[in-house]
Amino acid sequence: MGEPSNLLLKLSRRLFAEARDRDAFVEALVNPQPFPTAIVWMQPRLEVVPFAIAPALPWQPAWVDRLSGDQRPGQHGLHQDGAYYCLDMASVFSAAVLSAIATPTESVLDLCAAPGGKSLLAWKALTPDHLWCNEVVRKRVRVLIANLKRCGLTDSLVFNLDPQTFAEQLPHAASVVIVDAPCSGQSLLAKGDQALGCFHPVNIKKNASRQKRILASAAQTVTGGGYLAYMTCTFSPDENEQVVEWLIKKFPQFEAVEVPVLADYASPLSALPCYRLWPQSGLGAGGFTALLHNRATSTEPINLDFLAAQGMQIYGVERSP
After folding, report:
1. Which is catalytic among the residues 133, 183, 198, 233?
2. Is 151 marked as binding a ligand?
3. Which CATH number covers residue 153?
4. Is 117 annotated as a binding residue?
5. How wide is the angle at C-alpha 248 spanned by C-alphas 260 and 125, nearest 5°?
6. Would residue 192 count as lying in a domain?
7. CA quadruple 211, 32, 120, 113: dihedral positive or negative?
8. Which of 1, 117, 193, 195 is most buried, most CB within 10 Å of its CB?
9. What's the domain count of the chain?
10. Does 151 qualify as catalytic in the annotation?
């Protein structure tokens, strides 16, 4: 077991009023324990699942199974066949905000899509007519395309563009925009991974600024009456609640909305409806999520020329990365 840094201890005091909660949080990051894997069924769920299944959680969709113990579904042949996608339950938690959106949905834009988990969760939860998946980091685009292709989402379009381009070319055009934002990645420690400098104020401030820039573009892309789902895999309020509060101040047509299935996970750090999963819960490495509704009525026709010119078909019919 390592020793907690002073910056981690300082963060714990910001997050929790009770000493026992602070201690549990720090312990989860300094002495990480394995978390069970979740699988998202992309094909019809088998009547007999070849894994030991843990009891379902209230916010867990019927098409997600939470596995018990140390199982490796990524090594099973069903995974390569695209029957399911493997991910952390923290990702399922973050995407649970989508349950508050009526279905079916016309269009979903995932602005920070690689490796594809949130796009797949949105496709299952919202059954959109159009799924647009963007990844700004070029080298991650191939992984995104590979996962979408393996899981059968061959009608999706993949982009490698700065989020601002969507604000300019697809204004008020997407029914749902997802921003699984780049962040300091503090929850990686709960998985036993490294996240160098994740508690340093300079790194946190840099990430918060980047998140605000992405969200500003995202907000301009949401159609009137549409939704913006914001999520991170970090714990700092500067990158979570404070970013949501900033967004609403800058774009007052947006309001944070309650997500009934996550009521027990409401963040105590904001008066707005925001939700947190803590690593000491034992359910996943942790994360933050919030859903914002655009109360404006402005809509624009979809720029089909832009989609045709910039979108990459999964099978590379038009363009390949």
Report:
1. 233
2. no
3. 3.40.50.150
4. yes
5. 40
6. yes
7. positive
8. 117
9. 1
10. no
